[in-house]
Amino acid sequence: MASGRHHDRATWLLALPFGGLWWPALGLGGLAVASLAFLCGGLLLSPDLDTRSNPSQRWGPLRWLWWPYRKLLRHRSLLSHSPLLGTAIRLAYLALLCLGLSLLLAPLGGPPPQQLLQMTAELWRQQRPLLLAALVGVEASAWLHLIQDGDPMPRTPRLLRRRGRRRQGGGSQRGSGQLRSGQRR
């Protein structure tokens, strides 16, 4: 498992080459958006937001926004360290925070949530290729993180691990005297 410093170094080193992949199709805008999304994904929206980590500290005074996320998810759980699912959950969490903040600020003159949703839909219609490059950039940086950790698949949830052990320890192995991994005499 890589240290936070190794994750950061790899993110910085690969951001521009990743953005360069988008140059032929989207030009300079694609390169910039994909590179920045890769950096943001690796440095701010990392799978390690479920711990007290460099990415959570980078949020500065806003790091408390990730406290509920950290409390709800175990480190390297299926919901935080899964390819696609982990990134989708982090982006959905961030979107819900933005909508909640919008709801709180609407009485003070801020845009109401409906307006934010309309603006997002309009942006999606007008800039779909660049937004796709951004989403792929955030996901690619998460894959880099998971691969550096040694395996892009997360831990099996505790509940499923217990059930699997019970089934494996069926009648034929009980009298054999063999120990299953993790058992003590």
Summarize the structure in words.
The structure is a single chain. Residues 170-185 have low confidence and may be disordered. The two termini are 31 Å apart. It is built from 9 helices and no strands. The chain is mostly helical and 185 residues long. The protein has one domain (4-156). α1 (4-20) runs antiparallel to α2 and α1 runs antiparallel to α7. It has helices at 4-20, 23-43, 54-57, 67-72, 85-105, 113-126, 128-148, 158-168, 171-174. It is globular, with a radius of gyration of 21 Å.
Q: Mind sketching the topology for me?
A:
Elements lengths: L3 H17 L2 H21 L10 H4 L9 H6 L12 H21 L7 H14 L1 H21 L9 H11 L2 H4 L11
Helix pairs in contact: 1-2, 1-7, 2-7
Concise structural overview:
The chain has 185 residues and is mainly alpha-helical. It has nine helices and no strands.
Domain tally: 1
Order of helices and strands: HHHHHHHHH
Q: Give the tally of β-strands.
A: 0
The geometry reads as globular
Strand content: under 5%
What is the share of helical residues?
55-70%
Poorly predicted sequence stretches spanning 5 or more consecutive residues = 170-185
Radius of gyration: 21 Å
SS element count, helices: 9
Give the termini distance in whole angstroms. Answer: 31 Å
Mean pLDDT: 83
- Structural class by helix and strand composition: mainly alpha
Biggest sheet features: none
